[in-house]
Amino acid sequence: MRWKPSAEACASEPQRADRLWRGNQPAGSPVVSEEQFDLLPTLDLRQEMPPPRVSKSFLSLLLRVLSVLLSLVGDVLVIVYREVCSIRFLLTALSLLSLFLAALCWGLLYLVPPLENEPKEMLTLSEYHERVRSQGQQLQQLQAQLDKLHKEVSSVRAANSERVAKLVFQRLNEDFVRKPDYALSSVGASIDLEKTSHDYEDANTAYFWNRFSFWNYARPPTVILEPDVFPGNCWAFEGDQGQVVIRLPGRVQLSDITLQHPPPSVAHTEGANSAPRDFAVYGLQVDDETEVFLGKFTFDVEKSEIQTFHLQNDPPTAFPKVKIQILSNWGHPRFTCLYRVRAHGMRTSEGAGDSATGEPH
To answer: Region (Disordered): which ranges (predicted)?
Structure first.
């Protein structure tokens, strides 16, 4: 049979524990009464603590961190902007390259004839052989004609080579006019720019690089003193009226004036409407002021490209300069072109040819 404690022993057990706890407390410690000890469970240990105060050092540290972050963000934005600019340049270059390739492909497609235009006629084998045989016969006939022509040319060349060469060189030197030209720059002729009209300037094509001499397509008035005549190699002045004064290599008794302009059949644009039409010729005396009228003429573009006009210099008078005054052209609204001007006559000494004087203009 087990032993069980009595009720009095159980009631006295808490009192004994309390005395043992009080006896173990160090000396000088505050004594807590039983009433205070009983009030401990009623205390609200979850009361809110007062907010801590923010020190100034923490705020300064926060501001420094923010400034560093802002500087880093600014650097990142600058780097991104530079990358965007480089990417934009690359995109622009790629777009231009794509446009060039597209234009090239379009040009190739335009130049290459489509397959639909090829003949769809289907020939039989016999028809094909017949066509090949006929074309072979035509080629043989053409070869025979070429051989015959070659033999004839060879015989003519062997018999008359020296005479033909002399005739060709003579015609080239005389240029079918057969008169000496004193308006050639190679013999000493030049242009009096002070008395000559200004060059034509096209505002629609006046790009900045045309101001440089090696890009400028406009020709000076000295080009009319050169024998090289081909489309575009001319001196142009504004409008349908203008003048050019040629300083001759000496005093010349003028007898004829020759104008040259390419025919409409070889003109690139608008035919020959920029050619001069009506013009007058004057001889300038030594004082450079007195002008002698030598005639008024019309250059007909429907005739030969080289036309010579006889001057009214009677009695013959020697002039150091000659003036060509253009009165109209063949319909061009903006400019008139002169390709070549030739002055014919007889050159005199410095003191000769002054006895006769013409009518001043």
So the answer is: 1-30
